[in-house]
Write a structure and sequence with these properties.
The complex is a heterodimer of chains A (339) and B (389). Chain A is α+β, with helices and mostly antiparallel strands. Chain A has helices at 17-28, 58-67, 77-83, 118-130, 142-151, 169-172, 186-190, 212-215, 219-239, 253-263, 297-306, 326-338; strands spanning 8-13, 33-35, 42-45, 48-56, 72-76, 90-94, 102-109, 136-139, 158-161, 177-182, 193-204, 206-211, 241-249, 273-278, 284-293, 310-315. Chain A is built from 12 helices and 16 strands. In chain A, strand 3 and strand 4 form a beta hairpin. Chain B folds into 2 domains: 2-167 and 293-385, Bira Bifunctional Protein, Domain 2 (BirA Bifunctional Protein, domain 2), CATH 3.30.930.10; 172-274, no CATH class. Helices cover 46% and strands 19% of the residues of chain B. Chain B has helices at residues 15-34, 48-55, 81-90, 133-149, 162-171, 176-184, 186-189, 193-205, 215-233, 244-253, 261-276, 281-291, 294-310, 358-362, 378-387; strands at residues 38-39, 45-47, 65-67, 73-76, 99-108, 120-129, 156-161, 209-210, 259-260, 279-280, 317-320, 334-342, 345-354, 371-377. In chain B, strand 3 (65-67) and strand 4 form a beta hairpin. Mean pLDDT of chain B is 84; it is low at 213-218. The chains are: A alpha+beta (339), B alpha+beta (389). Chain A binds chain B through residues 86-87, 89, 108-114, 117, 119-120, 123-124, 126-127, 129, 133-134, 146-147, 150, 155-156, 158, 170-171, 173, 175-177, 191-193, 213, and chain B through 2, 8, 52-53, 56-58, 60-61, 112, 114-115, 177, 180-181, 184, 202, 205-206, 226-227, 230, 234, 236-242, 247, 250-251, 254.
Amino acid sequence: MNDKSEVLKIALPSDGEMYQATLDFLKNSGMSVKRGSSRQYLGSLQGLENVTVLFQRVADISSKIEEGSADLGIVGLDRFEEFRIDDGNAFVVAKDLDYSNCKLVIAVPQGWIDVSAMSDLSDLALEFKHTGRELRVATKYPRLTSKFFYQNGINYFKTIYSSGTLEVSPLMGFSDIIVDITSTGTTLRENQLKPIVDGTIIESQACLIASANSLDNEPHKLDSARKFIARIEGYLEGKDYFTVTFNLDANNEEDAANTFLNSVTINGFQGPRVSRIFTINGNSTYSLAIVLKRKDLQVVTDNLREIGASNIIVNKPDYVFEGESNLFTKLMNNITGKK
Amino acid sequence: MESLKPLQGMKDVFDSRARTKRIMLNSLAEFLESCEFEQIDLPLLEETDLLLKKSGGTLASKMYSFIDPGGRNISLRPEFTSSVVRAFLNKDIDPSAATKIFYYGQIFRYSFDNGNNLREFTQVGCEFIGALPQTSDKEILMTAIKGTNLFLKDCSIRIGHMEIINQILDELNLSNRLKFFISEHLNILKEGDSGINKLKEMALKLGLISDTANGELSANKDKGELLQSYLTNMGMYNLGVRTIDEIQTRFLNKGIYSQSVDSFVSTLKNLHQIISFTGDYKEVLNYLSNNCSTKVAETIKDLSNLIGLIKSAEIKNIEIDLSLGREIPYYTGLVFQITSEYGDEDIIVSQGGRYDDLISVLGNNQLSTPALGFAWNLDALQMISELGR
């Protein structure tokens, strides 16, 4: 097991909407996936050595990570939560890769005008029980469904596993209601179903998962994992940051910096970078630059106008790398914690 | 081999502890035999439907269910009573003759925690089928107390009665739905003010009560119009397995407010007072007979007589708790728990109750057969008795 050439195995979705979305995501993170042909199930990452990409069906990725036959994987949080083993080997490193967003919802026939909330469903389940029927729920997610129903005090129901054509099952009489993934709700509407108001079981997006056992004590794999994770993190962080540059009239660099620091409470990472502008008109003007989170941008630009800043320019960095990768630290903590 | 540890909530028991457990089990089995209970051995696995559809309730969320290699949905038993009744019906015993049965073995109850709670238990228990309460209630209570006393002194017994709350609800002049709603959620009501608030919110959401004086009027006007358009277009709508009639009835019932929020809350407050009035049985019985109707008072009198019959038993406290037994949906009359102190905690070492409808429900016949039973939790008994040594 301690072979030095041990390569990091990353499982990626080979089917469905997540296939292309994941390739795009990794490309944006600076790691294009090279795959010989669409029929080949192995690939590599451009710019990152010692890594093999395994293309796996979305439904299988969680179990590959759980059994340790892949070290890292990208999969929908919904699938991971459905297939995970409590206190098992697989764990989530980042649950918000910010693509493939969708919701797992409970939907009932549109004609059920008397049912709009979970409490109606709970009431209805009892009514069914008293008339000798069961509330049948068709779903690809029997575990998440049962857990959610129990948590909402619904104990009289039966899940019916169905891997396709879920939406038509109430119409065809196979089930009474369904629990399925939706992003826009169009498919539900087209099949005369409506979601329950407080019946969202999980809000899902692509997430990064890892296998504790297969990475433990594998320095070569961990080294590649650190690089892989740091690039993803750099891209994700970059999406959240802005670089703001602006000009301020001041006597010298200290004055410029103080004017800014004394009136603007948000100071970027450490404070502004100040550099002198050699102006044509001979004014004493300095250019300042800071890096900000998206949420602070409006407040800061307002503040800047108040202190007389001009030429405010906002840029988006492609990546923001911290000295240490927070996600990698989280990975290591989890591996240690599982022992 | 990844891990040599047992599964979460399961335990390996070694040496003297295993021996003690076996000896305790034998003592209880012999004791029950001396009380003329006949032994029955039952399968660990049953069809999920038997356990779920007929008994169900909150136990459903705790079952270990899976598909066997033949494709059948089966479960590890989470309790014995359903199996006993199934076996009783299967054996074709004359239901009019009283039958006394005892059993022992493991039961399994999953819990959604991190394995802090045990998920496997050993029970020894018995059922008394076909005898009227007058003869069987006392006998079962005495059996439970005497058996517990083989290992533990200073136990307390907590007694409840499903009928008392049901009768009180009947007399409150509530709609059937509201009555049903309250009785299903007594555990929430028990939380006190926060529980009352929670129930109020739920009932509002369900349309069981109204928060405005003219709620009924405006709501029904809206509903009338909605229903009109619904009926016109119903050909377009998918109804699944429900009929138009069902949907319409439930929809309109949502608008029939049998109570305003204020009167609902005061009903809940009164009920809360009744169910939370736990403690010494004399005080509770006194309180109840002063605060309830004559019909309820009769049931209370029965309960009072029953308690009189067990006063001679070696028991520290006799308490009454009317909220007992709500997690088991098939209980109908007497319910009880025997508890023992373990540090600061009261641990339940034995519990049971009457289930007069279960046999007719499982047997699909109209004939109601009186029955009751209880089981000891052997693990709890052993844990506490070992502490005393």
